[in-house]
Amino acid sequence: MKKLFSILSVLSVIAMLTMRCKKDDKPVPPEVEEPKPMASFTYTKPDTAKFLEYQFTGIVKNAKEILWQFGDDSTSVEVSPFHKYAYEGDYHVVLSVRNSQGYWASKEVLLNVVDPSFDKTKVGENYFLTVGGTLTVSRDNGNGPNSGEGSLKVVDGKSDTKFFQSGFSGDLVMKFELNTVQVAGAYTLISANDSPDRDPKTWSLQGSEDGIKWITLDSRTNITFASRFERKLYHFNNNVAYKSYRLNVKANNGSRDFQMAEWTVNKKQP
């Protein structure tokens, strides 16, 4: 009987506490939803002669937080910041905004920062000849690098000689280690005297500071040479002084053999 009484007493206390809690609880008003944020921006060059400098103007609504990302690891929280790039190149500029409830919006623009005086038809010195170094290839001519069509002919500065490799299978690597590190911004390829089907078609150019880690500087796919001894010039964005450069040739125009008259890696402009 005492046990039953104790159980009833406990239940009574619980019921009283529950009723008291219900009486004391106040309804929580619903959270008012804020207007959604909006983000856009414009940009100008305050001085056209200073092509690296940009003034960004944010067009922002209903935002509590603002973040600019300029594509070069720099950021800003100003509405309309001024920014100066260190180098020319393509930069993804992103403006992101957020309200206090976590809603966000963003605007992204690909900004092409270029020197208006840059001439794409011109190229600087050929480092293979002016700086010097050592060429190695993944597979050489059967008669060796110093033979009449050996690998050294591709870096001798002469378009009337060529490097010829039989049994091409899309894995040719030509590497040149410079005597001193250099910042390159361009390279050239010259087609050889005959057999267009032996010309390089798909390749990539890479640079390395230590010969271990390689950075891709430029890639080309399905390229054709219109004539014999044609020189193709390619510019790329780079601000790192590399010790070694290599050309990875992945495909030619269908032949089982490969040939090329000349390969250079160059300073970007004279």
UniProtKB/TrEMBL annotation:
It comes from the Bacteria. Pfam families: PKD_4 (PF18911). InterPro entries: Galactose-bd-like_sf, Ig-like_fold, PKD/Chitinase_dom, PKD_dom, PKD_dom_sf. SMART domains: PKD. Residues 68-113 form the PKD domain. CDD domains: PKD. This is PKD repeat protein.
